[in-house]
Amino acid sequence: MTEVFAICTGQPKPFRGSETSAIGKRPVEGPVGIGTLGIAGDSVADTKHHGGVDMAVHHYPHDHYARWQEWLGDHPLLSEPAAFGENLMASGLTEDSVHIGDRFRFGSTLLEISQPRQPCWKIEHRFDRKGMVAHIIERHDCGWYYRVIEEGMAEAGDLLECVETGHGDWTVARVFAALYDPAHRPSHGELQDITALDPLCEGWRDKARKRLEAYRFVAQERSAHR
Fold first, then answer.
1. Contact, 171 vs 96, CB < 8 A?
2. How many distinct structural domains can be found in the chain?
3. What span, in angstroms and rounded, lies between the C-alpha atoms of 16 and 122?
4. Does residue 215 lie in a domain region?
């Protein structure tokens, strides 16, 4: 179990030029509703790449802040809430200790880990620092999303209690490494396993399917030239 010391929400605001973003989030006071599309009062600007039932609640481990402090220096965002746009601020759970499909009781809600978070340029723009995405990919410090299995209420100070372990062989870090870290070359069998992870969102499973198709194409090409 780990305590969530802040629940954070935000609305789209000007971010870069004509673009808007809801990455800037602030803690909410008291109980808040959590539904299948996310936390009451929270929103996304880019509905093509963010939001939806498989990206309802974002968790970025506060455990990583100390390492970012070493890498970034005394950056003011690291002393503020939700520096990485996370909805839940908590320590004690990291990408190598949670699995795809793990279920957590949080207040009266039931959350299920649905996918790693894919880092994007907005993190670097928010911090005004190049290289952060590459650093996340290298360290697999990506964070993750929950889908909401049971809607309900929660508030800061409530515990995240794991009530069901998902796919024990597939941590968030391992799935992220397999599909995003160029230094990691997943085997044919690993990619097949990922496509069969039912709790993993369809988009990430489709990434694994495309990698399998590439494997098959290469194998066919080699066979044709023997």
1. yes
2. 1
3. 9
4. no
The range of the structural domain enclosing residue 96 comes to: 2-181
Question: Is residue 208 assigned to a domain?
Answer: no
SS3 226: coil
Residuewise pLDDT in 10s, the chain (226 residues): 999 999 999 999 999 888 999 999 999 999 999 999 999 999 998 777 788 999 999 999 999 999 999 999 999 999 999 999 999 999 999 999 999 999 999 999 999 999 999 999 999 999 999 999 999 999 999 999 999 999 999 999 999 999 999 999 999 999 999 999 999 999 999 999 999 999 999 999 999 999 999 877 555 555 555 5
39 belongs to a structural domain: yes
Q: Is 218 exposed, middle or buried (0-12, 13-18, 19+ CB in 10 A)?
A: exposed
pTM of the predicted model, to two decimals? 0.93
DSSP symbol at 45 = S
Kindly report the CATH number assigned to the domain that includes residue 92.
Answer: 2.40.33.20
Cβ neighbours for 126, distance < 8 A, ≥ 6 positions apart: 21, 23, 24, 77, 85
